[in-house]
Design brief:
The complex is a heterodimer of chains A (119) and B (407). In chain A, 24% of the residues lie in helices and 33% in strands. Chain A has two helices and six strands; from the N terminus they run E-H-E-E-E-E-H-E. The radius of gyration of chain A is 16 Å and the shape is globular. In chain B, 70% of the residues lie in helices and 0% in strands. In chain B, helix 10 runs antiparallel to helix 11. The chains are: A alpha+beta (119), B mainly alpha (407).
Chain lengths: 119, 407
């Protein structure tokens, strides 16, 4: 088994893009049902949602209050899954419910341990 | 009660207290001596009470006699140590022969003993065995019965566990404030397994099974009643056990066969335990850490509500979604898929169920049979037939056959 990270990016800043509380509840349910389905296959390793607060540290002591002012696509959360190959991990990524929203993306990356050669 | 009834009863409640107090006084390395003195006390009781009848206050009598026996032992030991082995270093402690049998010391000693026998350096099954022997006063035969094995195996297991605890120099004491959360994890895991051993065991002995559950609840009560161990997760486990235990009389018929949840007589559910479960669940919300016991207690709470509402199944589904992320188990995966069918749809649940890799589990095919029942009777039958073939006990097979007949 290999491990993969799914990085979920969506627009969490634009006012128009903000869902109503009812929509939000429905989105959260879809999201939790999706993660629960992965966990029920014993393929969930870890992960979490992220708040909109944050800071970005750059070269030369530059600190900004997050990347949010600059890009619309912020990382809203990530999960790590177990999968036998890229294909199986892709199936998890494809079925992520945030993809129902236009502009949202899920980035799939294989985890390479520092001890691996990283084939 | 005459002395023949009263002695086994007192053995169950007092043996552990005497052992804990003496072992705490002597040190864990002399645990066996503590056990011998406690057993010897009961032997003396049965001889003396058989002749003269039980004393007015049997418990005080037992404490008195065991304290005297402990004192005699210490004096003999002292003679041995001073006269025969002067080289052996003697602690000042040993000079005080009196045993403190005050209620507070009895409670403290048992609580500290709980942490000692649930030390992570010994295997889980040894922790449960020692807990049953020393903290619950179970006989070796009863423990063997609960584990579906024989006395020799249990004796060996307990002997090795005690040796190991001695080697590791385990003390009978509460862990420090900083270690208590971590050590509490093992203690709670042992109590949880002890309860499950009684609740889900395939042993047909209903009395032993119920006692295992009650003992687990009693041990957990001691943790709840102590300020330093009264943590949210302890209350959550207590709540979970109360909710489950509320169905104890409804889920087994007279012959010790399991009665399925849907077929249970709600009048047999214990309302008192359900309300206690609610009380402990409320007490469990005082922190901000959500343990697996919180999630399981939440599920157990919804299961005490028989009416089928959308709200019930949606809540159960979300609790299982979180529980599986905390700790995977096949049974949680199957229950989660059933909740998915009830909260969302059978079609969606079938798609998800087919992804579960549990082909050797008869509950898996039972679930598929249930899910297909509403959509495709042929497929439902095929799956139930597979479940029937994999089922291990006669009562499971009968329950599955009833489902097939009903299709």
């Amino acid at each position: 088994m290999e491990e993969y990270v799914l990085l979920m990016r969506l627009d969490i800043l634009t006012k128009d893009a903000q869902p109503s509380p009812e929509q939000m509840q429905e989105y959260m349910k879809q999201y939790h049902d999706w993660v629960g389905g992965i966990a029920a296959q014993n393929k969930f390793v870890g992960g979490t949602g992220l708040s909109t607060e944050g800071r970005v540290f750059k070269h030369d002591n530059v600190v900004t209050d997050g990347p949010f002012a600059e890009i619309k696509e912020s990382i809203a959360g990530f999960i790590t899954v177990r999968a036998k190959d890229f294909d199986e991990a892709s199936k998890f990524a494809k079925s992520c419910p945030i993809l129902n929203g236009p502009g949202n993306t899920v980035e799939l990356r294989k985890i390479v341990s520092v001890h691996d050669k990283g084939d | 009660m005459n002395h023949q009834e009263i002695i086994p009863h007192l053995f169950r409640t007092e043996y552990r207290k005497i052992v804990s107090v003496i072992a705490k006084r002597f040190g864990f390395e002399h645990l066996e001596i503590a056990e011998d003195i406690a057993s010897d006390t009961f032997l003396t009781a049965s001889q003396s009470w058989g002749l003269n009848g039980p004393p007015e206050n049997p418990t005080a009598w037992l404490y008195n006699v065991s304290a005297n026996k402990a004192k005699n032992y210490l004096q003999r030991l002292n003679v041995f140590e001073q006269k025969i082995a002067p080289a052996i270093e003697q602690t000042n402690d040993l000079v005080n022969y009196e045993l403190d049998m005050s209620p507070q010391n009895i409670i403290d000693s048992q609580l500290q003993m709980m942490f000692a026998v649930c030390h992570p350096c010994i295997a889980t099954e040894a922790q449960i065995g020692l807990s049953l022997r020393i903290l619950c006063g179970f006989g070796i035969e009863e423990i063997a019965d609960a584990f579906l094995t024989n006395k020799e195996v249990i004796n060996k297991r307990l002997y090795r566990a005690k040796e190991k605890l001695r080697e590791e120099n385990i003390k009978i004491e509460l862990p420090s404030e900083g270690d208590i959360e971590e050590r509490l994890d093992t203690v709670l895991a042992t109590i949880y397994l002890l309860f499950n051993e009684g609740y889900y065991s395939i042993s047909q002995n209903k009395t032993v099974r119920k006692e295992l559950c009650l003992e687990a609840m009693r041990l957990c009560t001691m943790l709840v009643e102590n300020r330093s161990t009264n943590k949210p997760q302890v209350n959550a486990l207590m709540s979970l056990m109360c909710f489950h235990a509320s169905r104890f009389d409804a889920r087994m018929d007279k012959n010790g066969h399991l009665v399925l949840y849907e077929e249970q007589d709600v009048n047999l559910w214990n309302a008192d335990l359900i309300s206690k479960g609610g009380y402990f669940l409320h007490a469990a919300t005082s922190g901000n850490k959500v343990s697996k016991y919180h999630l399981e207690a939440g599920i157990a709470y919804w299961n005490t509500r028989k009416e089928d509402t959308k709200e019930k199944w949606e809540n159960i589904l979300q609790l299982y979604n979180r529980l599986l992320q905390t700790e995977y188990s096949p049974i949680a995966a199957l229950n989660r898929t059933y909740a998915l069918a009830r909260a969302n749809s059978s079609q969606q649940a079938i798609v998800e169920a087919e992804k579960l890799d549990l082909q050797d589990n008869h509950f898996y095919f039972l679930l598929l049979g249930d899910l297909y029942a509403a959509v495709d009777k042929t497929k439902a039958k095929e799956n139930l037939a597979k479940a029937y073939a994999l089922a291990k006990t006669e009562s499971d097979k009968q329950a599955i056959q009833r489902k097939i007949d009903r299709l």
